[in-house]
Cobalt-factor II C(20)-methyltransferase (Methanococcoides seepicolus), 203 residues
Amino acid sequence: MLIGVGLGPGDPELLTLKAVNILKNSDKVYVPGNMAAKLVEPYATPEILDFPMLRDYDVLNEVWKKNADLIADEARNGTVVFGLIGDPNFFSTFTHLKRVMNKHYPDVETSTIPGISSITSFAARADAEVDTSFEVSDGSETKHKIRLKANHPRQLIEEFSKEGYTDFIFAERLFSDKEVIIKNREDIPEKGNYFSIVYAKKD
């Protein structure tokens, strides 16, 4: 299995207990740079993989494929961690690695462990409270939407569909013993509760 592990914003005290536990018990740990390596070193011996900061996607795809080739056999036969700054599902190197891995090595299972992202760490350091809707952008086209407190998920899906969104996930009470995650649009319920989320994605 290949697990993307969020290491938080850079403070070693902001690693989650779950991240520390998986680092200690993994067979191999890879990281994309020195900052991540230093956070991992108290718990495991990391190997740095090259992920150049480029915009040439032909070159980047070659790099991602090369790294996937390197990791595949180890991840197929054991637990391999890719540790990174922030969260593995938000503007993350792991997203690209996972995509290439799933394409070329679909038999390798992948998962993620969340970390404190730049979004929430910024709010803490800047004392910037957010209690209404807000926008996060890196300047690229908006292709994802997350609605919190999704009390009427099917109604939301109909609204998002009119905006061009095609893929939807409904989640409720995440990480609790009553967790619900539904990826089949037809099975998403009419009603959710305060802890419900609808995720929408454009192709």
In short: Strands lie at 2-6, 28-31, 46-48, 80-84, 110-113, 144-148, 167-172, 180-182, 196-201.
